[in-house]
Predict the 3D structure of the following.
Amino acid sequence: SCGTTLIVGKRFHALNRPNYDLCASCHTDHDESKKDNKAGDEEPIVFEETPLRPEDVPLQQALLSQLSGFEKWKGRLGKTKLEDQVERAMELWDEAHDNPSNATTTATTAAAFIKTLENTPLLDAKGEKKELVTWKGIHVGWFRNVFCKLPYVQKLVEEGAELWFVRKVGVNEIIRRTKPNDNVLSGPLIEHLDDVVMAWGLDLPNSEETLSQPTIADATTFVSYTGGYKLGFLVEMIDNIGDDEYIWMDVFCVDQLAWTGKGRLPEMKVFREELTDGLQAQIKKIGRTALMLEKWNNVMRTLGQAWILWEVFNTAQAMVEMNVYLPQQEIEHYLQTCMESNAEFDSIQQSLSQINAQNAKAQDAADRDIIFSKMKEFGFFGVNSLVISQMRDWLIKVAKQRLSEKQTTGKALYPFDIFKNNLALLLQAQGKLEE
C-alpha cells in the first residue's frame, strides 16, 4: 500500500485482516495483483467499501484542498486504469508546451496509443528478441542540465507526479511526442535522448560538467528508489551524486514502452526472470549503489518494496559500495535524537527491525513471485540479516563522519561521551569489536 494517511476519497476496509484499509488507488492495484497470483499461497484479503459519513465531508474537503495537482488526480479520485493514466500523461504534456500539436504519432488518443504498444513486436527486423534493458548510464550533468529542463519534466515535478507514473506512462509520452512514426515506439528512453533534444529544441548548457563528457557511457552508479516517491524528490537527491557519475535508473534504461504495453505477456515474464537473475552481476560491474530514502526511521517505505529489497540485497552480495541519500534534515534528526541522546537510541533498532523480506510487496504480483522464489534460495532470514547489516553499516558511516568533522574542527561534540558510547554499541551490533 502507499502508506498515505489520512485516506482521501474512497476507503476500502479489510474484513479478514485487522487494522488494514486501502485507498481507491491501492485497492485497484491489489485487485490487479490478485489476478496474477496463480499460486494462491495466501488467503485473499476481502474488502468492502466504507461509506463516507456526512460529518467527515468537511475534513475530506479540507484535506483535498491541500493535495498537489497529481494527488488530486490520482486513484483516490477514481482515475486508476491504464487508459486514464495515459490520458493524464497526455494532458500534462499539452499543459507544459505552447504548441502541443507536435505529436507526430498516429496514436493520438490514450486507447490508440495503448493499442499501438500492445501490437509493437518484441522482435526486431531480423526476428531476434529486442533488448529491453541497457546497462549504460546517463551522465549526471546531462540529467541535471538538460533532461530536467524539459518543460514536460518540469511540469511533472510541479504537479507532484510520483515516480511510478513517470516510469509507467510519462516516459512513454516523451517518446511518443518525439518519434517520427509509430514503427520506432520501442527501446529504453536512453536510446531516444538525441531525438528528445532535437524535437524540442533543448539547448545544451554552457557547462563543462555537461559538455566535456559523453551523455551515455557505462553506468557507474545504480540508483535504487521506490515508485511511491515524487519525481521532484528524486531530482533533489540526485543533485548530491558526484558530478562525474553515470547513473543507471530503470526509468531511462528499461524499455517502459514494452513494460506498459506487454507487461503481462509470457515473453515479459522471461525478461523479468532474466533481469532478476542477472541483477547481482550487473550491480557488481557498475560498482556502486545509491539508495534513495525519504526518512531514516521509516525504511520500510522503500525497503518494503520487493524490487528495492532485492537490489539492496544484491548490492550486499556483490560486496559493492552503497551510499544512502536522504534529506539533510533527516540525517540531522538521526544524529541528534539517536546518537546524542540515550533516550532515542533504541529507535535505531526499531527502525531496522521493520525490515522483513517476507512481507515485501510489489505492484505486480508476477514480480513479487519471481523475487520471492530467488529469496527463498537464501532464506528470508538471510535476506533480512544482510539488508539490516547493510543499513547499519550506513548508519555507522554517517556517525563516523560526524565524529571526524567535530574532531577536525575542534568543536565540542555534545554530549561527546553519549555519542561515542552509542557509536560503540552500533559497531558491537555489527560485529566490529576491534573498532
